[in-house]
Protein: Cytochrome p450
Amino acid sequence: RETGLPPGPPTLPFVGNLHLLPTQFIHYKVGAELKLGSGTAIVLTDAAAVKELIEKRSATTMDRPPLHLAEVVTQGLNLVTLHLYARRYKSCSLVPLRQVLSRYSEKWKILRRAAQAILTPQASARHLPIQQAEIIQLVHDLLRSPESFYTHVQRYSNSVILSVLYGKRSPRFETPETVKFFKVEHEWTTLLETGATPPLDYFPFLKYVPERWAKWKQVSKVVRKMQRDLYFTLLDETQERLRRGEGNGSYVEELVEKQKDLELDREMLGYLSGVLIETGSETTSSYLQSLILALVAYPEVQKKAHEEIDRVVGQHRMPRLGDLEHLPYVQAIALETHRFRPMTPYGIPHYTLATEEYKGYVIPKGSTIFINACEFLNRWELYDDPENFNPDRYLLTENGTKPGVDGSNLRPTFAFGAGRRICPGLHVAQHTINLSIMNLLWAFEFHKAVDPKGNPIEVDTMDYLSGLTAKPRSFKCRITPRSAEKAEIIELEFLNATAMLSKFEFDLCPEDQEYVAKLRGLAKSKV
Ligand code: HEM
Structure:
C-alpha cells in the first residue's frame, strides 16, 4: 500500500484485498480503502465525501472502471460501463492514444446526450398514460393471482420499460420479449458475478488465454448474440412500425427521428435502447419487491398510509399521479424504501481520471470509487433507529435525519447516484414508483402468509440475493383487496385501460392475443 492512501485492511501478495470483495451483502462488509490487484478502490462512507468527490469533482470522477467483459460483449457500447480509457487500444502503436481516448469519450457523450432525452421531467411526463394503464394491469393481476406477486411485479416493470422505450408492451410474464430479456439478463449477470470469471481487469494477461481454456470467452459470445438478437429485433420492429405510420410516441421513435442530430449510428441506437431495458427493468421491480417486503413486515406503516389515501382519494376511484402532492406519507414511504434498502447498495462504481486529494489523503488516478450508500443511510448519528422502516422520519426533516442533526450533505435522490453519471431514468422510475405505491396501498392489504396450521410465516427483511443490486429473495405473503367495492372498481378500470394498453399491443404472439382477449372478457362479465 502506497503512502498517503486512506487506511484499509492488510493486503495479500499479488491480489491485495481482492479476496475481501464479498459476493453477498457487500455493503456490510468493507471499509475505507482496498487494494484490488495492483489497483486501488476507495469506499466512500460519508455523504460529504460523495458531494465533494462525485458531484463537485465530477469531471475527474465520472469514469467507470475498466470492465473487460463489457468490452468483449458490447464492444464499448454499454452506456453504464463505458470506460473512457479503452485499455485494449493502449498498447496499439498504430493509433495515437489521445485519438483513441477522445473517440471513446465522444462515444460516451453521444450516448449520454441521447439518454438525457428521457431524463428531463417534461420528456418523462409524455410516458405517463401508459405507466398509469400498466399499474392498473398490475393491480388487476394481483387481484386475480396474488400468490404470483413476485413475477407480476417483474412483468410490470419490464412492460413499462419496453412500452416507454419501444412502444411495445408485455401482457404476460411469458410474453416472448420478456422471456428473452430475463434469459439474457440471467446469463449476463451470471457472467459478471465476482468469481465467475478470472479477475481479468486486475491481471490483464488472463485476457490472452486461448478460448479453448477460457470458458468465459465462449459464454461472452453467446451473451453477445442473445443481447443483439433482443435489442436489434426490437429496434427493427419499432422502425418498421414508424415507417408504416403506426408510431405511438416511444423513446426509440424519437431517437430514430433525431438520429442524425444526435449522431447515433445503428449500433449505438441498438445498444443504447437495449442497455436502458437492462437498467430500467430489474431496478424498478427489485425496489417494488423491497417495498412489499417492508409493508408486510411493518403493518403499522400500511395502516397510516391507508388512512391518508382514504382521506385524500376515497373509496370510489383509483389514485392518479396528481394525488401525490396531497399524500405526504406516501411520498415518505417512497423515500424510506430507498433509504432502508438502497437498490444499488454500493452504487455503480466510478473511476478517477486524475489524482485527487481529499482531507489529506491521496486518491490516485485510476482508482475505483464505490459509494457505500447503505452505510451512511443507516448511521445512528444521522437517523433515529435506522434499522427500522419508519417513513415518519421524512415528515420530520427533508432528508429523514434526526431533528437538529446536519443532513445538508444528503439528498433525497441519492439512491439514483450523483454527478455526471446520475441515473438518466430517474424521472421515469419515480413515476412508476409513485403510481405503484399509491395504487397498491389503495387497493390491498399486505399480510404475512400463514402455514397449514394457521401460524403466520415471518418475513426476513435481510434475506437478499447476492449481487451488486439489492433484490429480496422470493418470499411468501398474503395480498387481499381492501373491499369488494374496490375489487369491482379494479375490474372496471382494467376494462377502461384497454384503449391505452392496446395502443402498445403490436405484433402480439397468438398466446398473448388469446390471453388479453380472455382477461378482458372475464373483466367484462364481472362489471
Ligand atoms: C428504482 C429505480 C432505479 C434506481 C434506484 C436506479 C439507480 C441508479 C444508480 C445508483 C445509477 C448509478 C449512478 C452513478 O454512477 O452515480 C444508475 C445509473 C443508470 N441508470 Fe438507473 N436506476 C433506476 C431506474 C432506472 C431506469 C428506469 C432507467 C432507464 C430508463 C435507468 C437507467 C440508468 C442508466 C442508463 C444508468 C447509467 C448512466 C451512466 O453511466 O452514464 N435507471 N441508476
